Amino acid sequence: MRLTIFGATGGTGIQLVRQALEEGHDVTAVVRDPARLGAPAHERLRVVTADVTDAAAIGPAVEGADAVLSALGPRGRGPATICRDGARAIIEAMGKAGVRRLVVCSAAGAFTDTGDGLLTRYVVKPLILNRLLKDAFEDMRHCEREVRDSDLDWTLVRPPRLLDKEATGRYRTATDINLRGGRSISRADLAACMLGVIGDDDSIRHHVSVAY
């Protein structure tokens, strides 16, 4: 498949690029600074330097793709709009290019539902996580609204705390509900999950929670 990956220089994005190449896909990695892309040169890797919030600038990177994956996320704390602005531009560029499949990395901590245990639902998320990560989570919620309001074949993937560990292949998923007790996952396993849902038609227009 021909995949376009946004946020390719981040921890999850680098894993997406590496694993996609290992699986035999043709990859277009969209970056602001090519020097930060932690992946060696590869005959099936094309690196495009562009502002992800500019739909016209990223248009050539999206054109001809079978699927687009976004691992965009804010860096550090404080007000952030990269997720929502990036999603808006990506959706516009995909619409113009006639590309339909979109997989976006979100965050489980930004959302509470009946899948959460009582402590998580009423204490951990509202009183701890949503205070510590208020701006990042607000950006992610806006991003999800942008994606959900589009007419694309989207899937939102919601991980909990991310770890810099190797892939295990042993993770759980749930559709349209949070995973009880799901506290962490490695970026490598998250990337594997995101790549895995591309061909899963049952995940289209749903969110998928993933965790150990």
TrEMBL record:
Domain NAD(P)-binding residue range list: 7-200
Family matches, as InterPro entries: NAD(P)-bd_dom, NAD(P)-bd_dom_sf, Polyketide_Oxido-like
SUPFAM superfamilies the record matches: NAD(P)-binding Rossmann-fold domains
One Pfam short name: NAD_binding_10
Name used for this protein in its record: SDR family oxidoreductase
